[in-house]
Design brief:
There is one protein chain. With about 200 residues, the chain is mainly alpha-helical. It has one domain. Helix content is about 55%, strand content about 5%. The chain is built from 5 helices and 2 strands. It has a two-stranded antiparallel ribbon. A hairpin with a 5-residue loop joins strand 1 and strand 2.
Amino acid sequence: MSLPKGFVPRSKAPLALAGFLALPLFFAALMAASLAIEKPRVIEWSRPHGRIARVYHDATGSVEVKIWLLALVVALLLVAAGWFASFLRYGIYVTCIAAVTEALALTARLGRWERHHATRFPNGEDLLPDNQPGGLVNHGQWEHEAAKTVHSLVNYTVALALVATAIVVFRAVRRSRGPLPVPPPPPPQTGGAPTTSRVL
């Protein structure tokens, strides 16, 4: 059973490119979402003289699920844009623009998310104070590395999208010039075969 004409994509290339670019974008979104909404589970109780004791624990499972879902939504939005673009004449360009737009959007508030995450984790991502033995990362160190990773993955995604665009433009220009001219055949040889003489 064939699909109606309006539901048949012009090309599968935009969707395939979107799926390819969605992979680095997913991991960039995963790190960005962690910086944006991750927070430790805090337990507080009163101590003598009105002091408050506070202990930090790992984030709850619901927070972790939200982080993964947000990253998945970002990747699926790009795949959906690629599917829509597969019905358009210049779908590859639409996919590349969508990938670049989503990638750059992840960095718009990245600096603020980095600072807020460090504030929510005053003892660092490993939940251990900097002066306590056994600490793996210092306060703010994980956030800085996570932000660098997001920027690296975003740059990688943008570079791949630009390379794909350049390839498509090159092929379009080559097709517009028509096929390469066929060189003429070599002229036929005239006369007999060359002879050689031997001196005795």
